[in-house]
Here is the input.
Amino acid sequence: MNATGTDAMKRAAAARALEFVENGMVVGLGTGSTVRPLLTLLAERLAAGALEGIVAVPTSEDTARRCRELGIPLVTLAEHPELSLAIDGADEVSPRLDLIKGLGGALLREKIVAAAARRFVVVADESKLVRRLGTRAPVPVEVIPFGWTALVPFFEKLGAEPVLRCGADGAPIVTDNGNYLVDCRFARGISDPAALARALAKRTGVVEDGLFLRMARVAVVAGAGGVRLLKR
Here is the structure.
């Protein structure tokens, strides 16, 4: 599918996801290309008075900047520790609505916001649907820069092919939290995502991983045949 078709699908999915937003909500807003049309549509509806009293918690500095440019009011988790709703994209979506997220580099804040929300809605196009997590996308892992190379053998023992994420200049990409990202690819996918998540959580130096398991309640999926809802 060409870029125009993909953009149209993302906008259609964003419009459907906005139907979950109600007046007066505190909404967590994700990061990445899938969420950008959502921000534009939300701003348009706020400006037109179709939605009122909405405030948002952004999951990245990029999303915060876009919200300020669009006039979407922002608040912090310190002010609103519990959110009505969080909406975000995903890099992979399994049949159980387990996710891989983080190719946009904001996985830590995204997971904090998703965990703080009473309802977490995922927006994706049908190319992100997989039978087994890890078959298309690597699992991003946010790590402390100090001694990150000591984690490489650990990742390899888990069956991963770890690669430090770097920019065009060859320097490591630094997250909004001042950390590095290691993309862990699994040649045959992930046989037990929950076991992998537990192993990563126990390792000193690992800040967070991109496995979002049993968090999403609804996925809004756009395809050539239209938009459909998947529920867990």
About this structure: The chain has six helices and 13 strands. Residues 3-130+213-231 form a domain with the Rossmann fold fold (CATH 3.40.50.1360).
